[in-house]
Design brief:
Function: May play a role in fatty acid biosynthesis and insulin sensitivity.
Shape: globular
Pfam family, one: ECH_1
GO molecular function: hydro-lyase activity
Keywords: Fatty acid metabolism, Lipid metabolism, Transit peptide
InterPro entries: ClpP/crotonase-like_dom_sf (IPR029045), Enoyl-CoA_hydra/iso (IPR001753), Enoyl-CoA_hydra_C (IPR014748), Mitochondrial_ECH-domain (IPR052377)
CATH class of the largest domain: Alpha Beta
Strand content: 15-25%
Radius of gyration: 20 Å
Largest sheet: 6 strands, mixed
Number of helices: 11
Number of domains: 2
CATH superfamily of the largest domain: 2-enoyl-CoA Hydratase, Chain A, domain 1
Oligomer: single chain
């Protein structure tokens, strides 16, 4: 099944801020808000809608977040936000709405019962870098770059810091946040922001392969595993083992685990039911 929304109208004018394509259990969401794929309120709301729909869909097993154009995302729409300074509250209500929409999106990605892969080709800056760091996996081209440059314009990247400091080591995250300098793909991999770096011409092929491999697994097992991964990360080691023991026992009682183990012992392919 494929549900495709065209990325652009004739002449290059944007038709939608988000391209959507579902193929073989993999939902590809393509940021299409030229020229910098800024995370405007409209785009954030569309992403929320698609994630909500994906969470409830039996057809969607894996999500990919990619981007159309030279930049992955330049983060928040500063022009949109600046225009609201003329509001009676100097923009406070709109700023709160924007930051909450973005933070809730990042939380939704983490809580989504399906894996999310960032496909990055180009610059991911500020909330764009936050989006990459929030995804479960991230694969980028060798010409991609990342930064949290808010400090350069008097606006510390405090909300991007949440995802960044959980993906990268503390001192490396602080380096990016305090200097605002751009790091290359190799440094991003060293910091832990991305999993793999590939040549531009192979990016989509590699990401699709990852997505296809993951989509072939039991959807219930993926849901259990992703939820447990993030839950145990906030616990002490003792608490984490107590929690994951309970998770594994319940997982063992699932039909998919019974089927998967049986298929392994019988040397046949498992047939997943998601139960």
């Amino acid at each position: 099944m494929a549900d495709i929304v065209s990325l652009s109208r004739e002449g290059g004018a944007p038709e939608t801020p988000l391209g959507v394509c579902l193929t073989d259990g993999v939902l590809r969401l393509t940021l299409n808000n030229p020229p910098a794929n800024v995370l405007s309120v409209a785009l954030l709301e569309r992403l929320h809608q698609e994630l909500d729909a994906a969470a409830d869909s039996r057809e969607v097993r894996v999500l990919i977040i990619a981007a159309h154009g030279k930049l992955f995302s330049a983060g928040h729409d500063l022009k949109e936000m600046t225009a609201r300074r003329s509001d009676g509250d100097r923009g406070r209500a709109f700023f709160e709405k924007t930051m909450r929409l973005c933070a809730d999106l990042m939380l939704k990605i983490q809580k989504l019962p399906k894996p999310v892969i960032a496909e990055v080709d180009g610059l991911a800056t500020a909330a764009g870098c936050q989006l990459v760091a929030s995804c479960d996996l991230a694969i980028c081209t060798d010409t991609s770059a990342f930064c949290t440059p808010g400090v350069n314009i008097g606006l510390f990247c405090s909300t991007p810091m949440v995802a960044l400091s959980r993906a990268a080591h503390r001192k490396q995250a602080m380096e990016m946040l305090l200097t605002g300098e751009t790091i290359d793909a190799s440094t991003a991999k060293e910091f832990g922001i991305v999993n793999r770096i590939v040549p531009k011409q192979y990016l989509t092929q590699v990401v699709n392969k990852y997505a296809s491999v993951i989509a072939s697994k039991s959807p219930l097992t993926l849901k259990i595993g992703k939820e447990a991964f993030y839950a145990q990360a906030d616990l002490s080691t003792d608490e984490a083992y107590d929690y994951t023991i309970r998770v594994m026992v319940e997982n063992m009682l699932a039909r998919d685990a019974e089927e998967g183990i049986g298929a392994f012992l019988d040397k046949r392919h498992a047939v997943w039911t998601g139960e």
